[in-house]
Design brief:
mainly alpha; two-stranded antiparallel sheet; 12 helices; 2 strands
Amino acid sequence: MNVSLSVWLLTVAGLCVLIAADFFIGRKPHDVSMREAGIWTAVWVILACLFGVGLILVGGGGPGGEFFAGYITEKSLSVDNLFVFVLIMAKFAVPSQYQQRVLMVGVIVALVLRAVFIAAGAAIISAFSWVFYIFGAFLIWTAWKLIQDARKGGTSDEHEEYEENKLLKAIERRFGVADRYHGTKLWVEENGRRVMTPMLVVMLAIGFTDVLFALDSIPAIYGLTQDPYIVFTANAFALMGLRQLYFLIGGLLKKLVHLSYGLSVILGFIGVKLVLHALHESGVHVPEISIPFSLGFIVLVLAITTATSLWATRRQEQH
């Protein structure tokens, strides 16, 4: 798509308005009910679908199909990321009424980081077409690693305990951390010294964690579309509903026992698609995988993964 600067600015402004509205509605700390989470999850999904339909009307089926394929892929990868968010919340003992504020700031940090990664990826791809080989190989390796981790005991074992990284520990040592939460405050005075609150630490933990998540999600969506506008908007809509999705399916995460297998198949598929595209760009006559086929394949894999996960969990509960 040939997206003008004015369209980019309008899109970013529109997303900022939506984020501001979401923040204003949930500004008061409270426990999020299933009804509230369900309503707002539906709102974000509807908004994403409307945006995708708008792309189809303006740019045709190609851009619209790329958006929906990218959105569904990023959304499914985000669900897997929720496992880690649950552990981060437990690690720092975040009070339930403050969890939505933590996730809101975490999502904003994630959007900024993703924008940087997307811009860097677009610049690299435009300059070096061979980078598709690297992206493809990395996704295939990631898919294999997911399968290996799942065979060792599943997603729950992989994320059994969250460990703070060295950078976060260094920040804590440098600035100090208060011994308890102080509402939604990020900094407080303690013994004559300005220190971070646990609220700020957990926000940084989620932000740093998303950097790792972006390492596979950004190459994955670039395997479905090379349009930076579609890559950015698909990521934005997938992330912006993540806070509500956390509260909606938090109790169901443990039942998605086959999610890692499904994601590994999707990432492996996109990795192969990237390699084929790289070969095609190099002048080798190989078949390329179309967007309609990619979209159908991703939806089918996620449907089968969800169905088999719920079936396996039900059988385990019965025994």
